[in-house]
């Protein structure tokens, strides 16, 4: 059973990401290690703060401890309780060797206890008002300023209870276990200031790297190339999300394991299940936000330099608000509202976990009935909201045109007769069923000084189904911009585009019709091989595996790519990368193929290979070829338009342009010497024999003339020059030629400039 279309597209994107990670894991490893180091710091902080109260211990305090430190004790009893007080004092003296002072009045007792100047000496007192075997009423006095011994009020009280118990049962004793809750809460409070912040950095800052790949795909038009090959946009995002989620979960689970390994109480005390799911759901919260924010960045440089700072601010702002403004004293209900912000969600969860770690033990399964469930729901639901927001941004950006210049007037200039006829024919609608129709197309940019300039200016043309249409022009003529607008790589400013009578409203509308070989090879994946490129785009374009293998072998043979099939693209020479781009453009059955300077960077042999491939694979397809190689246009194109400064200045077949603009014959003369007298003699001869001739160029011992073709045939020019070559006129050799496309192009350039 074959794979479904969704499975193929998902597999292709996932496969691409996997091999990119294998060939360049450095970035992910670096961010992963940094994330884990923050987790280690959090674990160390936990050890430093919590090690004093991790478990209950039996008190080893006894009266002998006080005897060692030379403490005294004061006692008071009324007439009824005096016997009991004395018995207690005697018991203490027997156990500790201390002298117990017994007072007859409460006033003497309190004066001695409260007014003594040596507060460290009297740390314990007992006043008994009533005692019998069934009940005891009294007051325990404790000096909290004791500094010489590590004696707590609870420990002294336990010794006292032991003594009182022996009064009624001399053979028995009382021992107590202590849960130092106050110390635990203080440690938990300190940890909640810093631990959640460190873990928020550990689990959120790494999220920035997941924007890098999608921005780079968009910046270098790799996404656009995949979309024109049949990939659906939502599958692209879903496959990237699944891949990034796997990586993110891997790091987050390691972070959680690190905290467990360090015996972090906020994680292991009553919280192991609660915090585990907090870490597991966190990527569902942050990844959609990262993807949505990435849509506002157009370059890898901008996103790598700015998005990380944005995430850091999102981490720190809620933290400082809660910590500095509210002194970390904030109700759980209020904190849950702030937790819609992804970085604070995990901060709040760990803060709650730290508080619960010193509370009563609970069953781990109770996590599904308390406030942690709300945190989980926020992570999932808010993540879905961020994803919807991202799709809305993508949709709006896709439908947005360029600068609004509808109110600006069309430039007025003298239009060539053929170009005017072409525009009239296009605007009449008579050619709307052709492969490509462009009507009054404008593309406006803003330069670095804020001035508007038109890269494409009021262009109207049509390309017939099945023809190779050439767009000639020098650098900066607007050829690439015209192609980018038609293919949906960039938005148009005004005008109308039809592909096979389908109006292109947004860039994605053109994707199902076109295949592109752009001017530069940045759309190739540098960390994949040529064979992997063929595999990716072949599957996207609907090839079966066996059929694809046969097709790929043919392209490798035609372009001599077989020996490079398993090299990474970044290791290929510029020429071999270019041959791969040309081959990928023709792979599949796209009805329209755009070739932007396809052979400009190739050596002569490779250029011939590429031109042979174009001629072989062009049958039945419509090809728009942008080039500044005039010989290539002359060889391959059925019709040609010449663009200058964003406008079409000439249009027609090669023969038509040559007939129309080829108004002169070209002769090159080799002079006997470079002396001025020789040049003057030759010039006088040419002017006499060929009136109206003009010097086209002059170099050392040579000169070139243009001779009006209307008054003389080329054969007559040849005979005249040949007959007079040996008559001492001053030239030793000559060549005669008719106007080539190159000459036509130069004539049009000079005419346009004039």
Automatic annotation (TrEMBL):
The chain crosses the membrane at residues 28-50, 190-214, 234-262, 274-294, 306-326, 373-396. It is found in: Membrane. CDD domains: ABC_subfamily_A. GO terms for molecular function: ABC-type transporter activity; ATP binding; ATP hydrolysis activity; lipid transporter activity. Residues 438-670 form the ABC transporter domain. It is a multi-pass membrane protein. SMART domains: AAA (SM00382). Keywords: ATP-binding, Membrane, Nucleotide-binding, Repeat, Transmembrane, Transmembrane helix, Transport. InterPro entries: AAA+_ATPase, ABC2_TM, ABC_transporter-like_ATP-bd, ABC_transporter-like_CS, ABCA, P-loop_NTPase, R2_ABCA1-4-like. Gene3D superfamilies: P-loop containing nucleotide triphosphate hydrolases (3.40.50.300). SUPFAM superfamilies: P-loop containing nucleoside triphosphate hydrolases. The keyword Membrane applies. GO terms for cellular component: membrane. PROSITE patterns: ABC_TRANSPORTER_1 (PS00211), ABC_TRANSPORTER_2 (PS50893). Its main location: membrane. Pfam families: ABC2_membrane_3, ABC_tran, R1_ABCA1. Belongs to the ABC transporter superfamily. ABCA family. This is ABC transporter family protein. The lineage of its organism: Eukaryota, Metamonada, Parabasalia, Tritrichomonadida, Tritrichomonadidae.
